[in-house]
Amino acid sequence: MDTQATLPEAPAGDAAEPALFATMSTMRAMRRIQPDPVPDELLDRLIQAAVWGPSGGNMQRYEYVVVTDPEVMAELAPLWKRCVDAYLATTGKYAPAGMDEAAYGRMVAAIEYQRDHFAETPALIIPCYRFPEPRMEEEGVRKYAEELGPEATARMGQIQERFSALAEGSCVYPGVQNLLLAARALGLAANITIWHLMLEEEWKAALGIPEDMNTFAAIPVGWPRGNFGPVSRRPVAEVVHRNRW
Questions:
Q1: Of the N and C termini of the chain, which has fewer Cβ atoms inside 10 Å?
Q2: β-strands 189-190, 214-215 pairing
Q3: 172 with 216: CB under 8 angstroms?
Q4: Upper half-sphere CA count for residue 182 (Cβ side, 13 Å)
């Protein structure tokens, strides 16, 4: 297969709606990918799409590690296997509520395929972010507590770690979603995982990522072995609450 000759056409959609909707509705997590290399210019387009994503406070402190060297990928493969096996032995042991057992079995088979062929992955993208230390002044802290009130200020003290994690994630994950959309539009298979966080220190050491830099995903990218198709999701009527819960 000549994967570099031409780019695949964008998915067809209803002429009355933007093509983006057709892209999103067929953006399956594609775990079975070919070993064929992905041109650097296409990977750069994925990172460009990610950079276009919104970043909280427009701080733009993201960095992206792009792995294409087969030797580095082979070094990462045992780490990936340990993380996947740990997941499948615990959280991933059972199908989520509402998911058909047969469908879940197919998903697990795809996860295991990706695990067993990880060293052949043509590209892996690791989004990173370093959130700056907050700058606090006494007057600002006083105003903060005054505006929130004593009860809310106390609650914020209790959830500060969660708040900080969400603030950091909100700066990087919009860009990650842009990256995934761009991959789908270019006909590339990609899927987002955070399993590497189980061994994040080992991953960072293998890739030379600075200690104070947090990693937010491990995204394998390549040309798909299967076909894109409609995603299976809960209908809008089941998840929306209008005006109040």
A1: C
A2: unpaired
A3: yes
A4: 20
